From TrEMBL:
GO terms for molecular function: mRNA binding. PROSITE patterns: S1. The gene is LOC100833526. Transmembrane segments: none annotated. This is S1 motif domain-containing protein. It comes from Brachypodium distachyon.
Amino acid sequence: MLAASLKPPPPSPPSLSASSPSTRAPSQTTVTCLPRRRRRHRRLHLSAAATAESAGAGAAVSPEEASTSTAFDEARLAQFAVDWEAVRADKDRGRVLRLPVVRANTGGLILRYNSLQGFVPNPLLSPAHWCKDPKRPIQDITKDLVGSSISVKVSEVNEEEKKLVFSEKDASWSAYSSQVKIGDTYDGIVGSVFHYGAFVHLRFPDGNYHLTGLVHISEVSWDLVQDVQDFLNEGDTVKVVVVKIDAEKSRIALSIRQLEEDPLLETLDKIIPLEPDLSPDAQITSSPAEVELLPGLEGICNELLQEDGITDVRFGRQALEKRVVSQDLELWLSSVPAKDNQFKLLARAGRQVQEVYLTTSLDQEGVKKAVQRVLGRVP
């Protein structure tokens, strides 16, 4: 046992090198470690060399290839120029275009116009899309339009800034505005609500909502409206009447309150009813001194007498309304037809109401303009 332990160790294995790959060491661990490292470095080296060679080959472009690429770029630029010129002409002519929707983003739709792409912001889309499901987010609705085509008009062209904007609302106005007349009533859906009023989308006989009008704060209710959102909210269904159309600005003015009976007339008749055998003249006093006038009303009446065609101003009944229509003094021309050249005005402030009778040779429109002139002069 002792002799065996003093036996010299076996000779060391010969060194391994890349030049003698056939040499193998007794130890498997030694054999599989070093050569793998060297092969990895060689691979990395060859890979870098191949990349450099490939890059060098890519940088070398034949004259024929360079000429083809230049010609292609020039053709594209020429096509862009032609299309910018064409889209400017379409805007000037007010043409309605049918363009494909290529994609949607959070702000609107991207449309293709030949070699160009343009944008339709969400506010310039037709209300027909949103009104199908007012509770659905507009971003989900626009995604469904990708792959379809919509009718639009060119809204803005700026070649220098590469800006091209389309409007579906303008195209809808061209198609449907001729069907709208003053006095027409529509069912509508309330869209955006602001401090000055609410936009209402109008439902047409085909069941779609093609146009949008504004209900001004003064036309929301007979009550005093200080915050439109106290009366209207997005998605509400309402009935409106068309009171004004501005074709030049593509605007429609709507009213909700004019479809309701004026509570003022009802209040006056209930508080100060006219006897069957009593004419309106019997209720009119002959002198402003006999009536406690609304502040500022006497000055307005004196100015009315200075208007051509107005020969007399007298005061009639007073009453208190059930609700406040305006805190400031307002003059309203009654819808009651004139009798014996006499028109009736209604002066209102707070809940107080005062009848004012004008004797005049003017027609209803003339009286209206005279009152407007006076109100413009009197602070």
